[in-house]
Amino acid sequence: GVTTAVMGNCGVGFAPCKPGDRDKLVELMEGVEDIPGPVLHEGLDWQWESFPEYLATLEKRARDMDLCVLLPHAAVRVFVMGERAINHEAATRDDMKEMRRITADAMRSGAFGFSTSRTISHKSHSGEYTPTLKANEEELLEIALGMQDAGAGFIEIVSDWNQPDPASEFGMLRRVVEKSGRPAVFTLNQRHEEARSTVWSELMGYADDAVRDGHSIRPVTAPRAIGLLMGLEGSQNPFSGTPTYKSIADLPLAERVSAMRDPEIRAKILSEDRFKGSTFPLINRLMWHQMFRFGNTNYLPQREDSVAAIAEREGRSPEEVAYDLLLEEEGTNFLYSPIVNYFNFDMSAVDTMLSNRNVIMGLGDGGAHVGFILDAGFPTWLMTYWGRETGRFPMPEVIRRLTSDTAGAVGLHDRGVIAVGKKADLNVIDYDKVSFGKPYVTYDLPAGGKRLLQKASGYDATIVSGVVTYRNGEATGKLPGTIVRGQRSQDGTPQVMAAE
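RE: above sequence
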């Protein structure tokens, strides 16, 4: 049902980019977003160097939805600083001046905003932290001033909120917003570490204070837990980093399952270090007490169903339980590990976030973490769980969250409502039948790359610019989508809307 999406999130992307830096950006994208290098090399034709050239290249391909594009901080930093960016050196005044110029040019050419990452979860394929992790306030402000120069664009930030603490980090963001006049959005999730499980509430309060003072800073949250789907068909599982599993990882699924059922191989894998050889950036956030048999879309697992609880009841180790669960359904079963928004084994934190009208519903990765996260179904979950099943939010509010609220947050005032003169992006929905199926793996990426997909039902028709692109969940082959250039009012000021 999605008719417009935003790309270039999390500070990673492919423009601007000098020819000699292409491999650097591919390696970063491979690590941060779990898109294999061969897939990226096969799929990118590199008919650009500057960001305006990148937008022009994207416009040449027909699509079934519209795309808004953000300017990624990592690409800008590497373009300007080269290896110094990779090594996390501080930008010089000349560096920052050039970043400001590039940002202004990108916004004038149609970029919707600028994204940056300040989280240690974002690493390159070789394990290096994203080049933007330690960018200082002066650098971020200079980039925001580039948006001010262009009179367009918003700031998107992903952060661990611990440099040195949530109040200080948010204070930095607020100062950048105040001095530049540019709006900002940031990811808001409940962390699962005991000491940090309430930080989300603090951040939401800081954002509310900023809005009351006239500054547009809006949190973006997910409508359920963001969780990892780990399986033998996916790109990661708890044992992916062990030497013995690596030795059989490229076998066809049936042969791999057969090998893993061999007692000798099983014993070896269970005895080996799962962490040392792992390329999984989130391996250290996996906890047995928050890992579950996924089955048929079990997004609300209970504490007693965890791998740890099963192990305790059966007198086995959690590793043994997880190993055996992976082999269920001939190796097609998934283990589900919520990593945010499920600390209390319920939706209470998400409920509070979504009840705040300054909070935007988002974070539904549709093209990232393709082998172990599948959150493109967030809009369907918002309708089914929060609207139909629990009745927590009336359907008009659910639809507002999915349409005018998200559109307005990025300045898209030509869509998101049904009205004369607005863009004809619509969904015809059989509300009682809206649901989604079990995730599955398909091999349709460039170079035969794989990704997780999930079918949704109940969408009788999806319409983009008046053209039916999907009917009963099946593509019609019509491709009316385009690259949307950043929206501006007649006087050149940005059209970015605060929460209604």
